[in-house]
Amino acid sequence: MSAPFIITLDGPAGVGKSTLARRLADHFEIAYLDTGAMFRATAWKLGKGAWDWKNETIEAALQNLEFTLSGSGSNSTLSLNGIALTNEIRTENVGMWASNMAKITAVRNFQKTAQRNIGTTTSLVAEGRDMGTVIFTQAPCKFFLDADLKERARRRFNQLEEMGKPAELDELIEQIKARDDQDRNRKVAPLKPAEDAIIVDTTKLDINGVFERLVSETEKKHL
Ligand code: DC
Q: Beta strand 77-80 with 67-70: parallel, antiparallel or unpaired?
């Protein structure tokens, strides 16, 4: 059996990573790994304020968590302890909890092991903040997506509305800015493009155009 093929998709909140990752996974008939959802589910499960716990307490709690990925394309299902993740983790508040947890080395090490284990057996479109720089450094195809803060907040606003979780646009701009600043400036695995990543600014591009570009760049790598 040939080694799994990994496409990495990194970038800040609301840049369109999830939509594009799902479409790419459907197109290439491989699984979609939403690592942001893993951090969100971890924060949700441990609860608000867990980022202030003692290291040993966090490490002990992490031992009770097991992530699995099943299915393919946009039907890929990420589960925590056998239960599929739901939209409950999708609010901007839980996003900030996830960002707070994501600063902690023990949490990042735990996620690294879980994510690499999944990528050892499964071809993936892996979406997150450090997929190209830390987790799947060997991936032949790395993308870093970016867009203006206001445009990203507008996209997230629409996404939350579609999920039946409406938010205030101005508040979202503030929340996303705070979260990005924290993700870009943390000591461990900060959000940044890998040296060999293709950087795409999607502010003025329509999603279909970006998708076609990612497909053609991936095809050049002989998938
Ligand atoms: O992609 P998202 O908005 O669902 O991610 C939620 C938070 O999780 C994000 O603000 C930072 C953290 N995260 C991370 O540190 N590394 C990843 N690979 C994915 C997410």
A: antiparallel
